[in-house]
Q: What sequence folds into this?
DNA sequence: ATGACTGCAAAGACTTTGCATCTTT
DNA sequence: AAAGATGCAAAGTCTTTGCAGTCAT
């Protein structure tokens, strides 16, 4: 039966869409991407479900880039790079986050630590090239 | 002469205020703190100067905590902890950020890296205690 | 039929901007 | 007098919420 497929059609679509992309989209990015399959999807639904997924721990927020929240369906610990030129967010899977510091952090602060986020900022390759061209 | 002191009275006050606190305040926090000395200071002035300082590299933004941008006058590399309960931001000066990863990150991504931010999240001591009491 | 999800539009919250005024040099 | 900083209020963005309608069980 197709009920099992249909059940929460849009909710599932939002999560799938986020899981299939590596661009760490904003709510509006997702809304735009989803419109191909779901022309009538509302931006409010995207926001509502993203915030639900976040509460459920299904997805993770990277915080805001240029004032706009960005999301990631990959909840495993990994390192990010944010381009200050274009706002692009990249994964750096080659690097391992310093989880060894976690215990140390708990020890010195007394805080119970539940998460760790390592983010590099700088200029991505394509922005470097663009800057180069502009100087010409 | 007192001109040198007065020169940009409020601008200086904003920067001094941020430099003298360790709470990583928001624009509105700063505005509130500054009102003792400058009852007529406008929130717009705080925002304007914070964004100027940021451009000048005099201060640093930690990104948004619960949707509100937080600032830090300490631009040296150091580790932060953000409490998911109360939004408090603490420095963890005992830990050293993994700057060794920076070169590695440049190597594997081709990006020019200019900054690095390591942030732990969790529950601070005072929120842990409060949770404890609520269970009683 | 009931409970859950969604679209739409309105409301909310934080931040930025335009303009007249006031300061500093 | 000229350049720059500030206050005030309005505008701008991103996000959340209320409510009626729709969908799934």
A:
């Amino acid at each position: 039966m197709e009920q099992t497929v249909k059940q929460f059609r849009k909710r599932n679509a939002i999560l799938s869409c986020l899981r299939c992309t590596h661009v760490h989209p904003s709510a509006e990015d997702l809304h735009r991407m989803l419109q191909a399959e779901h022309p009538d999807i509302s931006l409010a639904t995207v926001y509502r479900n993203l915030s639900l997924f976040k509460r459920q721990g299904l997805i993770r927020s990277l915080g805001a880039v240029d004032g706009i929240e960005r999301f990631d369906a990959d909840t495993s610990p990994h390192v990010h790079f944010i381009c200050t030129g274009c706002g692009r967010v990249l994964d750096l899977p080659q690097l391992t986050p310093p989880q060894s510091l976690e215990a140390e952090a708990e020890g010195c602060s007394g805080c119970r630590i539940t998460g760790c986020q390592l983010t590099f900022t700088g200029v991505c390759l394509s922005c470097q090239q663009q800057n180069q061209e502009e100087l010409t």
